[in-house]
């Protein structure tokens, strides 16, 4: 077939525009997509305000359909241009792309569309893809590396927090009772979380002396133990930054990276740095 | 007696299953126990919800007895299989194990069982034992070592916090008086803790101008001094991590410490580690 | 012209007094200006209290005009004394200086002067100039350098926070509905921000079980992820401090960097710094 | 005079007991004093509870006089035993000691004794002296050194916070107006402090859309900028700890302290460490 090479190049061109961001066209595409996604989420958000919905319902519906049709075209172009369409369709972003257009079509047949609101808001996740292509990727990687490295410590910390919250919640249920709003252990645990995290709504608050003493303890504890995750993340961030820095020094003999600042010999092959510098 | 060696091996086998987690059977035992403990705590929690108790009281009672009987069997197996039963019985976990089954039996004879709720929730502490056997132990140890090392500093910090809270509480009692809810010094101290820790329920809040100025000061102070425990724990964590990394390796030639994990040569004198180990 | 050199020297003298702070007269000028700015802002602030305005309106108006006339004289002296008047007029501080006198003159012709209040409060920004001339500049520079260096990471962090807040807000709108105060998605997002940042007003609070479970998750998340910006800023501050200390000195013999302030000999090769400087 | 040497030795003995803590008697004295101070503060605190005062007024009065007489005796013993009595009387702790006994005597002649409550609570400050003599002094010194070192940076930070709070407060006053509780700029500033520090009482909360958007900004800002003081203190603590560590290495030639870990030569006199170790 004569059109094959042309088609091939069209698909490649589309792929460069849609999936990459190096070319001017690719950057333009990303900017326009970013604006469309944000606008469509803002429309969903405003649609939920009763006063606005009453007045501008027709406008909202029209806009919603415009966005959906554009996103649908984009979805099929993505399938068309990707070298392995099935890989794309079942990838995380492929599913998010599908979920961001389906609710509008379903709303034609199904009632109770308010539950689709949340799905439509998930369009926001599509922004993550755009950022993937920009300079933020490095920063995000350092952050997420530090978070992954401190995951085990943070799990231990969260486990201890949950234990404190459960035990203090049960104690408060027994001490305060239903008059102060501590009507059940789950509700007391909810109060303990509200207090330990220093949110403090005030919808439930202890009224007995013993309850207020216990509440004081959990408050001061919550105020203090926030230091633990902060310390963990600080240390991990410092480490992962240091590693990123250390890699700038490379042994001229064996090309090993990650030397300590101040090292006189390569830790891998024993080469004497001084003789080189 | 001929059965002695057989019995001995049964007890040893039970010990490996119940107290350790290296064998497949031991891991299975831990997973089942974890599920049972969590389920039993969830049942206790839900039992406290009035609407649920009214409807499912019979189910809750049955489940509670099922859990108690299983835990009782487990308790006696632990006593039977441990080499020094008395050591186990009077150990921390031995007492927690006993406390987690006694309330149900006592509820047959004693009224006012709601006070047993908290004791039953203490079953949660049994989970700590299971985690002791897993990979979280290292992370927990680094954390608790850092916390123990910073204990003295944190005590000084807490002492200063308590002094601030007491003095500000007394001042607010005199400034605001009973109309704003500051009915006594203990209540004012409770308010000062709620404010300094940035919980801020809002059940008591200053209404006079002078009171609001003082409240502003304590808020900004509380917002600022949270930096102190955070800084303490960060520094201690960084130290204890560094020690864990560094103390494991010393150069046998120049006795330099602080080598990177994975180093083949001393960074100070160029000695080849491999030739030594 | 005979007066030119005299004028020139007067302008130069005024410039030294008004724009600099090295001379005693310059320091005096700064202190007086600082007091005037603070007094004028306090007067604006107190003027907004209904009880005080009713009683002392005449005093407030007189003071406002006194301050305005002084600031006007200062403004024209600044224009007169600066070597390039246009540069000053269109600089950031030139505009702030103009904005701090215009509202009072406009209030003669225009009604609805309460909107000028905010502009008058902007006088506060003029204080920033005074601090620019003092020893705080170094500290401020280290801080702002660290903040600028961590900007990209903090943007990623804020992006993730906004995504969480939008998705959780939409979920809560569907779960809780209008009875609990979650009347629209924007309002639910506002609640999510109030909760995630651990402010917790309590004007809107979840009342259903599912809503309280989701709220617990977002609270613990907010309690934990505050560790991320803290860690970022800590690491950047440590780096920028280290650089400020280290970059000032390089050994002229072995070109080793990172010498302690006050070192007389290179810690690496033993070279005597004094003999070089 | 024959009694002079005896008196001298009695005064010295008393001085060792009262002002120092090395001898067993000195330690005993400190423990008893600590208990007396805490008890007297607890009595003052409980006296302010209306229900308790009504019932136990006589007991409270008696205890107060007992404490006052003991503290009076202690005060005069301190004056008697100190080598330079006037130095003691006009020292910080001398004045605190006097203030902790005077209110009770004054209450015989003056009405409105509730204002003396706060002065009596200041007795707490006397505890600081006892801690001065214990092992907490080192920890406290590291902490206070780090805080003093970061003072300038924290002042810059607080200045920026106050500027934000003033400008946002004025904006909210204009946006929200008196209906939402923002009745004056000082009140709006109070709200801005409550919000920025994440306390969030909820007694005043924005109700307009624009106000809630501005509130969201200040909340996220407050959530983020808490990272700044935390980072500052972390870095300073790490530095002051490092210095405390570094000082353990002393140059055997010039006895200079504070060498970097890994230094081969004394930074002060150029002595080669290796030749010594």
UniProtKB/TrEMBL annotation, chains A, B, C, D:
A single GO BP: action potential
Membrane topology designation: Multi-pass membrane protein
Keywords on record: Ion channel, Ion transport, Membrane, Potassium, Potassium channel, Potassium transport, Transmembrane, Transmembrane helix, Transport, Voltage-gated channel
Main location: membrane
GO MF annotation: an example: voltage-gated potassium channel activity
Gene3D superfamilies for the chain: 1.10.287.70, Voltage-gated potassium channels. Chain C (1.20.120.350)
GO cellular component: voltage-gated potassium channel complex
Positions of transmembrane segments: 31-50, 57-77, 89-122, 154-175, 213-235
Domain Ion transport: 27-243
Location of this chain's protein in the cell: Membrane
InterPro entries membership: Ion_trans_dom, VG_K_chnl, Volt_channel_dom_sf
Listed name of the protein: Ion transporter
The organism of origin for this protein: Pontibacter cellulosilyticus
Lineage: Bacteria, Pseudomonadati, Bacteroidota, Cytophagia, Cytophagales
């Amino acid at each position: 077939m004569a059109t094959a090479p042309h088609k091939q190049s069209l698909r490649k061109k589309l792929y460069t525009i849609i999936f990459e961001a190096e070319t001017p066209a690719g950057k333009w595409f990303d900017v326009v997509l970013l604006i469309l996604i944000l606008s469509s989420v803002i429309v969903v958000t405003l649609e939920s305000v009763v006063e606005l919905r009453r007045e501008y319902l027709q406008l909202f519906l029209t806009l919603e359909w415009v966005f959906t049709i554009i996103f649908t075209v984009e979805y099929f172009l993505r399938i068309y241009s990707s070298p392995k369409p099935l890989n794309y369709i079942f990838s995380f972003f492929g599913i998010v792309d599908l979920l961001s257009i389906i609710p509008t079509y379903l709303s034609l047949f199904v009632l109770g569309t308010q539950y689709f609101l949340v799905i439509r808001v998930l369009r926001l996740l599509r922004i993550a893809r755009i950022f993937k292509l920009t300079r933020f990727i490095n920063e995000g990687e350092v952050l997420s590396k530090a978070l992954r490295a401190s995951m085990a410590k943070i799990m231990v910390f969260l486990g201890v927090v949950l234990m404190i919250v459960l035990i203090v919640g049960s104690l408060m249920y027994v001490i305060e009772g239903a008059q102060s709003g501590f009507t059940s252990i789950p509700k007391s645990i909810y109060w303990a979380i509200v207090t330990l995290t220093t949110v403090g709504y005030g919808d439930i608050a202890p009224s007995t002396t013993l309850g207020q003493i216990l509440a004081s303890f959990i408050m001061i504890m919550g105020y203090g133990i926030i230091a633990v995750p902060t310390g963990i993340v600080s240390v991990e961030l410092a480490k992962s930054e240091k590693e990123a820095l250390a890699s700038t020094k490379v042994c001229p003999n064996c090309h090993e990276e990650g030397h300590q600042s101040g090292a006189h010999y390569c830790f891998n092959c024993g080469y004497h740095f001084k003789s080189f510098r």
